[in-house]
Design goal:
Rossmann fold, 40% helix, homotrimer, 2 domains
């Protein structure tokens, strides 16, 4: 359904000021205790998946159900035709519908659109522009929620922030080690980007460790350095995993693909073969300061992290996953406020 | 769930007398203003897709959600086994279930069945009989709603009627031009048939333009001529697009496939290649009388209609799409009335 | 959502004592008369399909809808990654997630998990262990409901029991003939196993007829013989279909695959070709004692059973299918009881 005023979107977590974030997560904590139904009776969120998802889809579906609302799911593989996105295009090709028309019509049916885009994976210079999610936000007249784009995964960072706030009385000043880990199928760096941005805005001190060739996007790094400078906290990079974890309060593990071999699977596999020792095990975790272990899942056990760490009392991974649900409910209540 | 009395079906819009249509659309208009939830708590509509759909599926799902009910979706590609439909068949072939048993059991579970059939596309003489949708209506004991068959698309015509009634104080006597437009993938004529039938029953004067070889089904045309004669309104055909639109109050654009090349893609493509100039542009629309532009979507921009027309104030296409939702809600309230 | 105490599961119908079964089915009968909505507002059942389903999926979706709750569906083909299930595995293969992590996280989102497993179909000795469903029950912290495993189909047996109780004032002592019937695609014996176990626990006298080579699993048979001995009722096997049906009150038809040719489609097809005369027709049914006809569907008409029998007044098949809905609603109310 259409709103008279311009809708709020969530493309990056940074789109929300910290005060708003705090209000949202306060509500998330109260929803965790008492999942008040029926706020969203008769309301529907459209979930548009141009790439697959499991945790994100289910946690959003359940979030709406628990609040008395519903979701509809649109999956590129089975439901979608190709969508044209060039302005003024003469549409004699494969795409029978323009994204502006799809966004306009969907906005008449649903109360928000959550979108997971599928970058072409040919050129990082193109994909890093995140044009797809911006196009949906431009044409939709209901709030657009980013369920993961090339650069950002704000819903994961929102749940991670909730988890950190539950764990520490005060997060500012805490030391976080972000450690690249090996995986035969590394994810994108979107989760890492959103986590780093959130941690720095909360004045946490950040150390990043990764093998050579797995440097993060230089444009994103410049942005993070600015946040760190403004907030007066540390942002160290280029470290070994041992250097990064020493004295850390939190170890956040994540596998991301190399931008140097982006779009080249053969080269990427060759480079990856030399990173087998990048795993979080007991010894590494113990070099922190009673360090908690975090991971956004899915997890390849005994490749990314040892069973011993994952099943330890220090592991927050199931709590992070559960908090996806509560944080998203609070976010939906924030974005879909009725005019009334 | 089963009903004691024979259920109401909606196979053609014609199945509903105009007085009933008016009551339904009056309710649709009040639902557009205030989408009253919870009429359908605990009720479910089964959506059976033997062919894909996007607008129809989403608008029906949202319609049920907004009224407090639910849908279940059954998609031929992934969910269905083949269904046998011959009476007395010895079922030793691919089909492990008879449509009469599927319809009987589904009727015990859901409160209505909406069906989109997939004609075989080998022979128009066979497909034009619309046997599939009739079979579901025969065996189901709950209302059956046609989500598009070979011949009819009543849900689109219902929304189109709502849109016309919102636009004109009086629709009787208005001049409607139905203009065939070029598309690399023309649709079936089902939308056109249902729209024409509805317009004539509402005493609108109709002009039809299409390239040679794209004549509408002769049986359907005979039926339309009878309606026109009975209602005392004009039904002109075989016109150029310029002749049809001259003085029109409404231009309804639609691409439909040629019956002369039905089931023969090579011939169809060859014929289609000679129709590239069939598009609605500003100049054509301006030859009408402040003519509104209508289209049932999806739309190939700058092939079927120019950006200029589609994005103009005269374009009703988004309203048509939105009215699918409101009109369907009113229709469901009409068909699924509780016995109380 | 997680529960403090250990959740109730339903893997085999035998997991529920007869007194509990009677309470559940009493509630099912009252739900059949008055489908009270809104008990499950805000609650969600996760449906995990490692193999397809139609009746089971729809009846569970509608069951939750009618009680004010929701389902989410996860289908192996489209939604799932492979799941690792070995303890301590080094996960460098295809599976990017361990079933223990998937079960733990899903348990934080949903209120129950219903699972249909897909046995590997290579070795019956392996598949008969039913490891998959046991693994889900071990790792989930919410109730796990078996939607059909290699050995058991408790939801069908629950509905069958409801149907028998509606039909007979007293089921104990009634004579049931379980008759193997021919089908080009025989099902597993899971329905047969659960039905037999339920019938014997209710002190019905059972006769089983099947062609040579279609003997039931010897381990299951030993268990059934123990039940029969304890309950003091008859369990006869190795009969011709005429011997089994003579004097029977109920004829339960089902096609199941041969364990001797398990995992060998060529041999299985060859053996199957000699069983064409195994069908339930009027003459066979009439040799019973006003025998009712039962079948769990889907049904190949005039192959498994003649039209004449299936469409007769003695046929309970649509009632069995409908009772899936009511019995499952009562079961969900039993398993998902709120702590409150």
């Amino acid at each position: 359904m259409q709103s008279a005023t311009s809708p709020k979107n969530l493309i990056r977590l940074r789109d929300l000021p910290l005060q708003e974030l705090d209000l949202i997560l306060e509500r998330a904590r109260s929803l965790k205790l008492r999942p008040s139904p029926n706020e969203f009776a008769g309301q529907t969120v459209g979930l548009l998946f141009f790439r697959g998802s499991l945790r994100t889809r289910i946690s959003l579906e359940v979030a709406m159900h628990q609040l008395g609302g519903d979701t509809i799911e649109l999956t590129a593989a089975s439901d979608f035709w190709d969508l044209e996105d060039r302005e003024g295009a003469v549409m004699d090709g494969r795409a029978p519908e323009h994204v502006k028309d799809a966004a306009a019509v969907l906005s008449r049916y649903v109360d928000a659109l959550a979108v997971r885009t599928a970058p072409g994976a040919r050129s990082w210079d193109v994909d890093r522009r995140d044009d797809e999610i911006a196009t949906w936000a431009r044409y939709a007249t209901v709030p657009v929620i980013n369920m993961e784009s090339s650069l950002w995964h704000p819903l994961q960072a929102l749940a991670d922030r909730m988890t950190l706030k539950e764990e520490f009385a005060e997060t500012a000043g805490k030391r976080v080690a972000v450690v690249w880990v090996h995986s035969p199928e590394p994810a994108s760096a979107a989760v890492t980007h959103s986590f780093l941005d959130m941690a720095l805005r909360d004045r946490m001190n950040v150390s990043i460790a990764h093998p050579q060739g797995y440097e993060l996007d230089s444009g994103v790094m410049r942005g993070l350095e600015e946040v760190a400078a403004k907030k007066g906290c540390e942002l160290r990079t280029g470290l070994s995993k041992e250097e990064a974890v020493e004295g850390a309060d939190v170890v956040y593990a994540r596998s991301w693909q190399s931008l140097e071999t982006y779009g080249n699977p053969t080269l990427a596999a060759s480079r990856l073969s030399r990173t087998n020792d990048w795993m979080v095990d007991r010894k590494l975790l113990d070099s922190g300061q009673s360090a908690r272990f975090m991971h956004a899942m899915p997890i390849r056990r005994n490749i990314e992290v040892s069973d011993e760490v994952l099943d330890s009392a220090e592991s927050l991974v199931y709590t992070q996953a559960e908090n996806r649900l509560h944080a998203q409910k609070a976010l939906l209540l924030h974005l879909l406020k009725k005019q009334a």
